[in-house]
């Protein structure tokens, strides 16, 4: 490089920003996850994963077994959503709904054909809580308790309604009760 070329390059230095090599910024939600991700505690996570695969079409993503064969952590994907789960470990304040005598939480699962999925789940040991029916808010759904104590509302969205239509249908439904 001649003296003129060196001079021209060094003359630009005050206006050139040189960034140090940095790792790209990590997104605060891991790839493939949503902002809210259920974490289910069950008694016999290995069997629960098999149930969720057979009944709900879940796909196992990850599993971390303990030396005694329990599941310390697992991740399954149902549709576009990840659900984390593990065996209960009472020493770590993780107990299943069965240990508590029930759960105050319901997981809503949207599927293409709720009649088929509910039928499979019941055949695999889920207990029907509320039978399949068309709902005033535009879904067809049923509520069931899986063999591990978690409550699921399995639904197929059938019609798009305005909030006003939902309110009207709710009034009619409540008036008939």
Any overview of this molecule?
The model has no long low-confidence stretch (mean pLDDT 90). With 177 residues, this protein is α/β, with parallel strands linked by helices. The chain is built from 5 helices and 8 strands, in the order αβαβββαβαβββα. It has helices spanning 3-11, 45-56, 97-100, 114-123, 163-175, and strands spanning 39-42, 59-65, 71-78, 81-87, 106-110, 127-134, 139-145, 151-157. The chain is 27% helix and 30% strand. It has a single domain (29-165), classed as 2,3-Dihydroxybiphenyl 1,2-Dioxygenase, domain 1 (Roll), CATH 3.10.180.10. Helix 2 packs antiparallel against helix 4 (114-123).
Summarize this, please?
This protein has 177 residues and is an alpha/beta fold.
Task: Summarize model confidence as the mean pLDDT.
Answer: 90
DSSP strand tally: 8
* Total domain count: 1
- Report the total helices: 5
**CATH architectural type:** Roll
Q: How many angstroms separate the termini?
A: 90 Å
Task: Label this structure with key terms.
single chain, 177 residues, alpha/beta, 2,3-Dihydroxybiphenyl 1,2-Dioxygenase, domain 1, 4-stranded mixed beta sheet, 5 helices, 8 strands, 27% helix, 30% strand
